[in-house]
Amino acid sequence: MLLEYSVEKPLNREPPVEELVKSFITKASTAYDRNHGPLPHINADSHYVRLDGAVSNVLELSIASLRNDFKQYEVISALQCAGNRRHTMRTELKEVDGIDWNDGAVCNCTWGGPLLADVLTKAGVTIEGDAHVAFSCMQTDCQEDRYYGSSISLARCMDPKSRVMLALDMNGSPLNINHGAPVRIVMPGIPGARWTKWLDRITVQRQESNNFYMQHDYKILPPFIETRAQAKSYWHLVPPLQSMPINSVIAYPARNEVIKLDNLINGELEVAGYALPDGDSGPVVKVEISIDQGKSWKEAKIMYPDAAEVAEDDGVDKYKWGWSIWKYRMNADDTRRIKKDTKIWSRALDRGGNLQKGDIEWNLRGVGYNGYGEVKGLEVIDHAISECEEPTRRMAELSVSA
Ligand SMILES: Nc1nc2c(c(=O)[nH]1)N[C@H]1C(S)=C(S)[C@@H](COP(=O)(O)O)O[C@H]1N2
Ligand SMILES: [Mo]
């Protein structure tokens, strides 16, 4: 088996957030990479996913069978690392333990493949009630375990409306190696850590997956757990993180940017970013901006998805798990009022009524950070000081397809 990168140095990278908000659907080549081990090159023609555990028929599913023997579905869903925005938590609150992600450990893509519910039905699930489905990739060692694994509730997997899927395609093309070729589990509304890539085993079982990344990581520890040593005796008391909170970030202007009034059209500053709903409560229905520390809020425009297009498809809201791209045109007076110490904040509201809040509790691993989107340190000047003029930033026509 050819492995790319290594256990010691896995591939972890994110695009600049300004790049990310240029399109509603993120290209596979732009999407962040998060790995706890090397990337395994799998031959799709000889790969099988084994489905076992509490089922009447153990199945060995080839990629051809997953594509041809089951109805194919598509879902638009954001994929977000639980550590997205960790940089803000560690710099604004307190040092945390984890990769220093900025705001780009998230993407929004179309995923295609058969529903797990259909595959489970074919195998015949033999247990009911409180049970789990575990997803594993046994192809390579990881940094803290011999394999990568996750699990979610059996009830969610059996519900076709939750759209848990054995994804073969990303944005209409077969998955590439970075994102889990030839098959990964896609579970809209659930943190990225559970979306096991290079899937080779699905097990219906009574307990959660006992993989390291399910039991000793990706959990929100209480704030009094301040060291790894303390965490050791505490992991088992906290449930795995299975949902991400409402969120929004400002993609531009960038922190400490110098804004030349001469360059602005009508003296208006364009502020833009993305927003994500809480778990299954999407889509985001409102994004607001404040320049007075939250005393007053003004509504931004959600560029995509357009409210008029948010329709139900087969009884499932098409954009329920997607992100929203928004922008706000700050009027000339407000723009002129911006000082070096002004903070521009963003906050989002989703269809389920979840409103983003400003005061966030610190946790050791820095997961699930969702304080207000914020940019500060801006300097607004009348004229360009230097000769080299930068073009005014305006969002290009938003491209909807990747
Ligand atoms: N097999 C395997 N699956 C995995 C991981 C991994 O390291 N190995 N990382 C997980 C984490 S933490 C995240 S955030 C997402 C990242 O998916 P991406 O690399 O396609 O963006 O994959 C998840 N699935
Ligand atoms: Mo992650």
TrEMBL record:
Residues covered by the Moybdenum cofactor oxidoreductase dimerisation domain: 241-375
Keywords: Metal-binding, Molybdenum, Oxidoreductase
One Pfam family linked to the record: Oxidored_molyb
Cofactor(s) the record lists: Mo-molybdopterin
GO molecular function per UniProt: heme binding; molybdenum ion binding; molybdopterin cofactor binding; sulfite oxidase activity
Source organism, top-level taxon: Eukaryota
GO biological process assignments: sulfur compound metabolic process
Keyword Ligase assigned: no
Gene Ontology CC entries for this record: mitochondrion
Domain Oxidoreductase molybdopterin-binding: 36-213
Protein name as annotated: Molybdopterin binding oxidoreductase
Source organism per UniProt: Morchella conica CCBAS932
